[in-house]
Structures are given as C-alpha cells and as structure tokens.
Amino acid sequence: MGTVTDTFRVAIIGSGPAGMSAASRAAALGLSHVLLEKTDHLSDTIYKYQKGKHVMATPSQLILRSDQEFDAGKREDILAKWNARTSELGINVKYNAEVKAIRGTGPAIPDSVQQIVKRNRDGTKDVKELQRHEGPYELELTSGEKLIADTVILAIGTQGNPNLMRCPGGDLPHVTYQLDDPTEVLDEHVIVVGVGDAGIENARGLAEDSAQGNVVSILNRKPKSTNVRESFANAKEPNAKALVEDDADGKLTIRYETEVKELEPGWATLSTRDGEEKIRCDRVIARIGSAPPRAFVENCGIAFTSDDRLAFPQLSPVFETTAPGIFVIGALAGYPLIKHCMNQGYDVVEFINGNTELKPADEPLLAEKFAGLPKGRSVDEWLEVLRTSISILKDMSPLQMREFMLDSDVRSYAPGEVVFEKNAPGSSLFAIAEGKVHVQIDPNDASKVVPIPAGTIFGEVGLISGRRRGATIVAAEPTICVEISRNAALKLMSQVPPAKREIERISTERQLLQMFGSGLTPADIAEVVETAKIRTVLAGQAIINEGEDGKNIFVIRVGSMVVEKEVGGKPVFLSYLPAGSYVGEMALIDGGQRTATVRAAIKSEVIEIDGEAFERVLAAKPALMDKARREMDVRRRTNALIESKKDSFSGVVDLYSEQAKFLVSQGLGEATDVLLIDEKLCVGCDNCEKACADAHEGLSRLDREAGKSFAHLHVPTSCRHCEHPHCMADCPPNAIHRGPDGEVFIDDTCIGCGNCQRNCPYGVIRMDKVPPKKPSLLSWLFFGKGPGPGEPPYKWSKKNMPYNGDPAHDEALDRKKAIKCDMCAGIDGGPACVRACPTGAAIRVAPDEFLTVARLKSETEGA
C-alpha cells in the first residue's frame, strides 16, 4: 500500500499543450502544483508527431493567452522552446508518473449517485452506480505512490485510446496507428486510413520524396467536393489543399468514397463508389481518431454528456466537471487545437486562483457575432440559449459551443422577412432558436404554408444533396436563427454523434411525410422514424433479393437502384428507381416472399424502414393503404408482363434487359437528363451538333459520333447532368452550378484549369478556346466583319483571327474554358439538339421515365 508523499494546491495530469500551459500559469502565480506526465518527456502527443512536421498555430484570429510561447513551426523547434521555458519557470514536473485512480477524500456529495452506462459490442449495456465525494483528492500512481491535491486538472487528451480498425484483418501486424519517421519507410505500398491532419501529414510525408519509392493511397469516405473543407471536414484547410495538390501532381492517390473492407498480408480489398477493388498493401496506417478514456474518467466521478462512446465530459463554462474541484481541458474537453488548449490551461488556473472576471480569449469574436441580436444577452447567455433551445446542439458542452459558433452565424428576422428564396443556391443548415418560420408550398398563394417551430432545423435538403433551395422560407414572427455553414454542419455531425442522429431523424421524417403524404403527421410516423436506419449501399449491392423473406421497406435517399427479376435462369431488368423512390411494400402488404431483386446502380444511401412499424401506420391510415395498393398494382402488372412475355418474346425481353444494363453502365444510374440517339432514325446530318454550336458561340457541346452504342441506341458524348456531379468536385473559382431545372452549367468565371474535365468519368467536358463575339449581320453585310450567316464564329475565328504579336490579343486567343452541355438553359424551346433533329432521332430523357417497362411493352407489342 503506497503512502501519501505530498500535498498540492493543484495537480495537473498530462503535459500536453493544455496541461503544460496550466502548469506554467500555476508556476507564474506561485501556486503549489505538480505536473504529472506518464512518459519521460513533455507533451507526448506533439513528441510523437512525425519528424520535421510543421505545426500550425490556428485559428489565426485567436490571441494566445499563455506563459509559454507558441508560433507555427517545426515540431522539434516548438518542443525545444517548451522544454526551455518549463525549466525557466521552475515548473514542478514529475515524469514517469501515470495516474491509476483519483478519489475524493471529503464527505459524500448528497444526491450525487450517478449511473455509469457501458455499451457492449453486442448491443447490451452494463450499468453501475458511483457516489461522488468532495475534495481534496487522492491521486494514486501506478508505482503505488499517492499524492493529495485540493484541485485536479485533467489534460490527458485522447491519443492513448485510438479507434481501431474493425474490418477482417484489422488486427494484422502490418496495421499500425502511429508513424514516427516517414523517411524510414521505403519501397512500400502504403494505405493511410483517415483524412484528419494526422492522416494527411503521414500520407504526405511518405510520398514527399520520390526516391523513397512508396506508393501511397489515402482513403476518404466522403465524396470529392469543390470545397476541400467539405471533403476534409476534420483537417486544417492548408493541410487539405496541400494533399489535393499532391494528388494532382501524382505524388499520392486520394481515394474518395472508399473504405477498407478486408485486409490480408500484402493486399487490401476496398469498398469503393463503383464496387470492390483489390490493391497491393504492405502497410496500413490508421489515423481514425480516438475516444476519451471513459472508464478512468467516470471512475473519478465525472459524468459525460451521453452514453455515446465519442461523447465528452459534462463541463461548466469554467471547465469544472460534475466532480467539484476536478477540471477538464484540452482534447478531452473537445478542443483539439493547440492554441485553444493552451488558452484553456491558462484560464483554468486563473479561475482556480479566484479570477472570476476573466473572459475566454475568443470572447471578442463571439461578442461581435451576437452584437446585432435583440435582448442584450451576454455571450455566455446566448451560447446557453442556443444550446438548450436547438435540438441538434443540446449535447454539446459550453466549450464546444464556443468553437462551433466561430464557424457559424446567428441573425434575427422580422415577421415576413425572407430567410431564403426557392431555387436560391445554398448548402448551409438553419436552426431556429426562437420564433417560427413558414415554408411556402404554393408560390401563387402565400397563405399555403407549413410551419416549422423553434428548436428544429430547415435547409437540410441543401446540406444533404447540394441542390438549390426547394422552397421559400419566411419568418412567421420575430425569429432568431443560427445559419450553420456546410463545413460546420459536417464537423458537428462528425464530432457529436447525437447531433448527426437528430439531423438524420428530422430529414428522414420530412422525406417520409413528403413521399407518403395522405394526411400523415409527424406523430403518425414517430415509431417508423425512430426505428429507421440509414444504410450506405455500394454499387451492385442488393438491398432486396428475389425469393427471400422480409417486410422492410427501403427509401432511396441518395443515388439510384435497378429492379431485376429472374426469368429463364437469368436476371431481366424491370425498372430504374431514382432518389426519392421507395421499394419493398409488396411483400409487406401481400405477404409472401420478395418478387424481385433490387440493387444499387451506383453507390447510394437508403432509409430502411421497419416493416412491422409501417404496417401499423397502414392499418391506422386507410388513405395511405389505398395509395400504397395503387402504386403496388403498377409493379404487379410489370411482373405479370414480364412473365407473359418470357416465352413468346424472350428475345425482345432479353434485348431490353441488356439495353437497360448498358444504359446504366453509361451513366444513367446517376443522371438526371441524358441525350440519346435512335440510330434507326438518325441520318447523320449533324444538325444536332450545328444547332448546339449556333446556340453556344460556335462551340458545340455535343459529339454525335463519339460514345458507345447498344443495338440501335447510341449514347453520344454529352453531359448526363448527374445528381451529384463529379465535375463540381474540384472547381477553384466555383464556376459550376446546378440550375433550377437540374441542369449543370459552367459560368463565365471558369479559369480553364481543366479539373472538371479530369474528374468527369464520361468524357463529356473539353477545354476549348473562347471565340470572339459574333458581329451582327449588318456588320458582316456592309463591312465584311465576322462570319456570315450560318457560319459559326468558332470556325471563322480559327481561320481569320491569327496571332498578331499584341500580348492582349494573343492571350485572348489562347484563353480556354471548359465546354459542356447546359441543356440550353434560358433558350426558348429547350435543347437545340432535339429541336434541330429532322427525324426525331435525338431525344433527351430522364432515366426514371425512360427505363420503365412501358418501353418494353411497346417494343414487344410492336414485335
């Protein structure tokens, strides 16, 4: 049994930036203190950074409040300065001192028994009760030594508890969670999992010198985005941009929408947007975050915000936990940035020393955000109002709220004031703190509205899909809203699991109400929403298999599905289901086994609805049952048609099925509008190309002859206007947009970088010179300027606008821009290619309308 050796005013556990800064402030104030570090050196997290790592000092606008110096620089230089300053201040550091337990030695706190819930992997929970005691606190070290402290500051971080790889093979010896020196890794195929700062820096370090011979892939579960902050929400923007540049330079490969499915010696099987892929792999470096050391913290008498594994401790505005006299700062408090941590270390010791007037370093920045709001509340009051009033923010600590609001805006609206207009661009999320807004559902009748009350959110469709606003939102009364940037929303969902679940719950509820209608209210489908699950489905993966049992219904949230039925021992294509469709109701209503197979055309997301819960809704709502039966009858007739034609027209059925599969492979699985040419009718006049050129400054967006064909259907090289466009993924000037009718177009801010051309998987974008503006007919008639009637300015300029030595003139001739179909947006009559086709061979189709059994029916009847 160890004996008590010393008593201190404050004990600081952990010598990272937060703990070291706290100890520095205690030393500067002359407080009796001890800094306990379990290793033999200061700041173990920074110490373990890879050699030569550049450490950033962000946020740049935040002042540093610490007795230690910190500026951006190399890891080695920063550690050297911290070591020197620690000695200079006379900080009482105790190395190799790992704390085993912290116990309150004072009386038990009345009514302080708390339940500690531990989630097991099998879904069960273990519950134990813990009685908190007042300080002073006894700290027991693993060596058996014991210390006494009036107050304790936990600055232990989370790095000692990394998230582990859960896939088959994740426990193999070549899977590691740390990279000390990337220069020691030579001639290896390396996979880095995780696109936070640590993962990005490891990947770049491994690929920095081509002489190392490493082949480096870094996996990102998110899709590629025009804004790197969206694709790399947990990384600093300079790091993310540098990684993207390395990818463009061929130094490494960023694999978007990709996860590890299985590992084996020398190989890795990846789940990608387009299916599975097996690649060489000698080493896996997993930088997938870490979780708080919950068992240790809870045994100190500290409660967490929820029983979620990634939840943080409950903290007061001055960092005090539910155990009086124990404070938590740094990464364990939810603040991973070094400057934040150091400021917290300074502040918490000032609070312990009695400085109750001290305000956090970010106070001026937040005060400026709240300055224009009514009611004259303080920053702390506003933060608490927003946190307690808005459902998605309630599980955040006051400290997390401060960081969150630095990336968000809050504003007030007068009654009748428009928050945003229908078809306006925007991907931010809005949360209502006070008041109410109305969704205008009829642009011609402002009285037809759907109210959204305080506490909930709106704008989630733009956040999820990136589409333009689907309705006009106006304030119904004096209203205060938080506008959460897309980046802040993605970060919130990543770091606060209850917030993610609440956003998904609200978006699911609204999608189901909109889809099923029939007078349903949120209360009617409450059980359905609570039991619903959002699943990611890879390309080719089935959500329903023909012949199996099952009653669950699937709503397609993102992506698309194809429906197939086995006829004569082979799958026959039945139909295409875009986002917003649902499937699976036939087995629920009729009983029996599944009558068809439904699989993902591209990587998709579905909402899986519990069949029994939905069955109870159907029983209570006859109108909904009638609607479901009518829609089900259409599918039943489809199945009957296939069965009736399988013998007499088996060739036509097979042809249609293969044709549909071909079209899906050519991009119809993610398209919203596609140009097709019926080669039975096409006479090769090229009127479609000429009309396209004439409508677009002489630059045709169409190549009729290019592209692939199946039977008589030809898919020319023309934009598909994808639901989630690849071309938008990396456009530096943000020149690519989606119009109100779904068209994807490029505006005049295009700088000709070619990123969109490289990212498009269908080769429908090209870089071309911009022709001069076509002079008028009179200018040509009287002065001979420009091309004549019917002569496109593009071809004319190539012949008649040579270089002349004038830099401005020659530069203008060299300037290129991205060229792609814009569906002739803004031109009366619609797409010129279709209007100009004399035989009706050119058609523009929406996949969900074209890939239907109606076409099969007409073809078989014609046969």
UniProtKB/TrEMBL annotation:
The question of whether Lyase is a record keyword is answered with no
Q: Which InterPro entries match?
A: 4Fe4S_Fe-S-bd (IPR017896), 4Fe4S_Fe_S_CS (IPR017900), cNMP-bd_CS (IPR018488), cNMP-bd_dom (IPR000595), cNMP-bd_dom_sf (IPR018490), FAD/NAD-bd_sf (IPR036188), FAD/NAD-binding_dom (IPR023753), RmlC-like_jellyroll (IPR014710)
Q: Does the keyword Transport apply?
A: yes
Segments forming a coiled coil: none
Q: Where is the 4Fe-4S ferredoxin-type domain?
A: 673-705, 742-770, 815-848
Which Gene Ontology terms cover its molecular function? 4 iron, 4 sulfur cluster binding; metal ion binding; oxidoreductase activity
Where is the Cyclic nucleotide-binding domain positioned along the sequence?
392-510, 516-635
Question: What keywords does the record list, in alphabetical order?
Answer: 4Fe-4S, Electron transport, Iron, Iron-sulfur, Metal-binding, Transport
Entry superkingdom? Bacteria
Q: CDD domains, from UniProt?
A: CAP_ED, DMSOR_beta_like
> Per its UniProt record, what PROSITE patterns does this chain match?
4FE4S_FER_1, 4FE4S_FER_2, CNMP_BINDING_1, CNMP_BINDING_2, CNMP_BINDING_3
Q: Which PANTHER family match?
A: DIMETHYLSULFOXIDE REDUCTASE CHAIN B, OXIDOREDUCTASE
Name-wise, this protein is Oxidoreductase
What organism is listed for this UniProt entry?
Croceicoccus pelagius
